[in-house]
Amino acid sequence: MKPALRQITATPESSFLVRKDVGESMLNNWHYHPEIELLFIKKSSGTWLIGDHIGHFQNGDMVLIGANLPHCFRHEYNHLAKKGSTAGESICIKFVSDIFGCTFLNMPETKALKALLFNCSNGLQLTGKTKHSLPLTFEKMLSASPGKKLIYLLSILEEIAQSKDYVPLSSTGFMQTPGDANQDKIKLVFEYTFNNYHEKITLNEVAALLNMTMQSFCRYFKSKTNKTYIRFLMEVKIGFACRLLVEDEKNVSEVCYECGYNNMSHFNHQFKAITKKTPLEYKKDYLKMQLVD
């Protein structure tokens, strides 16, 4: 199954989309679109797959996704409720890269903005002060007049561009022609890994999904994602481990075994290799951050 193509239809009132999604309306599959996407996760948590990047998202996270970069957001079930206090919320903005016009982006005053729109091709996660200063502007856009929405969009992008409070997500090597045959294969591998990460997955069984030998699969996966499958599987496992840890309901030992590890030492080693912290350090830092927020 190819990543779904989603296109935004312009209206007489607006050339770009500003939308608030609540509960099950946040559901999405592996997809791409020709527009750049700016997404604010107001209230939800789960796992995002952006290109070949796998990570955990939570309340307040923001991401800028370049045109035609395949992605999906797997929200936790309780946030997909139709209504109620647990229902998730997100605000999505989609716009074409030349929305302000080529002449505007070639002005010396917009040099940083032009660079940002280029750098987001592999996905950018917003960080620092910028991440905390923008939510109010997102909210204002929902009820603003068409002209004011455009001004707010420019304001948001300019603040991101000037602050450079962001980190890249997907590797450059992942980008392919949207909808090509390779995307079918990559999606099959991704979905299988998501569904079975807590079990023992061998290279031979994943290779068999694509009717390849183990050696051919390893070369293929590395050429398409710029990382080994073993590294990707490790990122998936640790991504889910991070989610379980911050829910504050499970201890490190329980998380270790639930994510498919049968050895605490091995789990701790891989967790630190991905996050640069031990599981306990990660959990403590998260709780401290919540107190600050």
Provide structural commentary.
This protein is of the alpha+beta class and 293 residues long. The relative contact order is 0.12. The strands form 3 sheets. A 6-stranded antiparallel beta sheet has the order 2-9-4-7-10-11. A hairpin with a 2-residue loop joins strand 5 (46-50) and strand 6 (53-57). The protein contains 12 helices and 11 strands. The protein has 2 domains: 4-172, Regulatory protein AraC (Jelly Rolls, Sandwich); 180-292, Arc Repressor Mutant, subunit A (Orthogonal Bundle), CATH 1.10.10.60. The model has no long low-confidence stretch (mean pLDDT 84). Helix 2 crosses helix 5 and helix 9 (229-246) crosses helix 11 (264-275). It is 45% helix and 17% strand.
Shape field: globular
Give me the CATH superfamily of the largest domain.
Answer: Regulatory protein AraC
How far apart the termini lie comes to 41 Å
Output the strand order for the largest sheet.
2-9-4-7-10-11
* Major sheet description: 6 strands, antiparallel
Q: What is the average per-residue confidence, as pLDDT, rounded to a whole number?
A: 84
Number of domains: 2
Q: What is the CATH class designation of the largest domain?
A: Mainly Beta
Walk me through the topology:
Elements: E1 4-5, E2 17-22, E3 31-32, E4 36-43, E5 46-50, E6 53-57, E7 62-65, E8 71-75, E9 89-95, H1 102-105, H2 111-119, E10 124-126, H3 128-133, H4 135-143, H5 146-163, E11 166-168, H6 181-196, H7 203-209, H8 214-225, H9 229-246, H10 252-258, H11 264-275, H12 279-292
Parallel strand pairs: 1-3
Antiparallel strand pairs: 2-9, 4-7, 4-9, 5-6, 5-8, 7-10, 10-11
Helix pairs in contact: 2-5, 4-5, 7-8, 9-11
